[in-house]
Structures are given as structure tokens and as C-alpha cells.
């Protein structure tokens, strides 16, 4: 009973800190997904361009960041970024070590990893678009920008929703690795609470339950978005899909 009181939300409980840490985990994951979306869309466009140099660079990016362990990438971004910031600071006359903020380093690292997966999701979604729609758009005189805005982008986003949901779940779990930078996200806070109270089972189970809650809610949101996107799709497009 005394151990359960540690999870209370009073001044002596850890419950509020765990909730705040869960929100920090969501913030890191959402920022990483946004960074990954920009990188993924850019890399997907490069791989679809037909230009040998761009295709090669896109393949290198997706191969490297899907093949290298996530923890190593976080270490490289955090410590390598801190070294770069320190060098820039010293060149400007500052003394001492300048560390890269944990949130920025963690979100950037997870975002780069996320981008390598999102690139393949966007590329696959584009290839799934009916070629007849694109040919019809060209036939009626749609210029490239209008065709992208009215046909390609809506279709890619609709088709990419299931894949993006999977990438979100991966990024949510990868955010636990950001704890090595000292950021007070869910994993780090669970570790600190367990170490401070010696209630390891209690706090790691509590942290795991919060992760399950976050992933379950995320599943519901992405499934709802997918159903809504499919309802809003024209019947002709549904038939082609």
C-alpha cells in the first residue's frame, strides 16, 4: 500500500512527474515526426526523380539510417552536435563546453530515423496512385503545381496514413532511447523514480502502462483518420484502390 502511495499526485508522489514525462515523450515524438515528414518527403521526391545522383543519395540515406542502431544515431547527434556547438562557440570567443539541448538533440535524432522510414512510406503511396488520374490531369492542361496540390498530395497523404501510424509507433518507442541524453521523458523519469525509491518493479510497470496508453490512443487516432480519409475519397477512386 505504501508503494502505491508513491504514485500519488501530492507533493510526495511521483504520479504527476510521470504524467509530465509522458507529455514530454509525446512532444519529442511529435517534433520528430514533423522533422521526419520534411526529410521523408524530400528523400521520397529524390528517389522518384529519376536523377541518378538524387536516387543514389536517397538510397544511401534510407539504407544508413534504417540500418544503423537508433542509440548510436542519438549518441552521434547529441555528442557530435555538442562538439560542433562548442567549436562554433569557441570560434566566437566563448569558453567552456556548450552542450546541445537534450530535447533538440533527441527530437532531431529520432526525426532523422523517422525520416528514413517515412521516405519509403511516401514513395510507396505515390506509386500506388492511379496513373490514369495523373494522365487525365495532364490531358486537361493541369500544370505541375496544380496537379500536385489537387491530386498527388491528397492521395499520397490518404494512402500514407497506415504507414505513418506505424512510423509514429516506432518513433514513440525510440523516444525512450533519448533518456541517455538526460531529458526527463517517460523512460528517464521512470528510471529516476525507481532508483530513488528502490521500487523498481512498481515504476517500470507504471512507465510501461503509460507507454501502452499512449500507443493505444495513437492507434485509435490514426485508425480514425484513415476511416475519415477513406470516407471522403470519391467513389471512383475507391474502386481503383
From TrEMBL:
Q: Name one Pfam family in it.
A: BPD_transp_1
- Compartments in which it is found: Cell inner membrane; Cell membrane
Q: Which domain of life is it from?
A: Bacteria
What SUPFAM superfamilies does the database record attribute to this sequence? MetI-like
CDD domains for the chain: TM_PBP2
Where do the ABC transmembrane type-1 domain residues begin and end? 22-222
One GO MF annotation is: transmembrane transporter activity
Q: Which PANTHER family match?
A: ARGININE ABC TRANSPORTER PERMEASE PROTEIN ARTQ, CATIONIC AMINO ACID TRANSPORTER, MEMBRANE COMPONENT
Q: Which family does it belong to?
A: Belongs to the binding-protein-dependent transport system permease family. HisMQ subfamily.
What NCBIfam families does the record point to? HEQRo_perm_3TM
Q: Give the protein's recorded name.
A: ABC transporter permease
- Say which species the protein is native to: Rhizobium anhuiense
What is the taxonomic lineage of the source species? Bacteria, Pseudomonadati, Pseudomonadota, Alphaproteobacteria, Hyphomicrobiales
Amino acid at each position: 500500500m505504501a508503494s502505491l502511495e508513491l504514485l500519488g499526485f501530492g507533493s510526495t508522489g511521483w504520479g504527476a512527474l510521470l504524467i509530465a514525462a509522458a507529455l514530454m515523450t509525446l512532444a519529442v515524438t511529435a517534433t520528430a515526426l514533423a522533422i521526419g515528414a520534411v526529410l521523408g518527403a524530400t528523400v521520397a521526391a529524390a528517389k522518384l526523380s529519376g536523377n541518378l545522383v538524387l536516387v543514389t543519395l536517397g538510397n544511401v540515406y534510407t539504407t544508413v539510417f534504417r540500418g544503423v542502431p537508433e542509440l548510436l544515431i542519438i549518441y552521434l547527434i547529441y555528442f557530435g552536435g555538442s562538439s560542433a556547438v562548442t567549436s562554433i562557440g569557441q570560434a566566437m570567443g566563448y569558453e567552456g563546453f556548450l552542450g546541445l539541448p537534450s530535447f533538440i538533440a533527441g527530437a532531431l535524432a529520432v526525426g532523422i530515423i523517422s525520416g528514413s522510414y517515412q521516405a519509403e512510406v511516401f514513395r510507396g503511396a505515390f506509386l500506388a496512385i492511379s496513373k490514369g488520374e495523373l494522365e487525365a490531369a495532364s490531358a486537361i492542361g493541369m500544370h505541375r503545381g496544380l496537379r500536385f496540390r489537387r491530386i498527388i498530395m491528397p492521395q499520397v497523404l490518404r494512402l500514407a496514413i497506415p504507414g505513418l501510424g506505424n512510423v509514429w509507433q516506432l518513433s514513440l518507442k525510440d523516444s525512450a532511447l533519448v533518456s541517455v541524453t538526460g531529458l526527463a521523458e517517460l523512460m528517464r523519469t521512470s528510471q529516476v523514480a525507481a532508483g530513488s525509491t528502490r521500487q523498481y518493479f512498481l515504476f517500470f510497470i507504471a512507465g510501461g502502462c503509460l507507454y501502452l496508453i499512449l500507443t493505444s490512443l495513437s492507434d485509435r487516432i490514426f485508425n480514425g483518420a484513415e476511416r475519415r480519409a477513406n470516407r471522403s475519397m470519391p467513389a471512383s477512386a475507391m474502386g481503383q484502390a
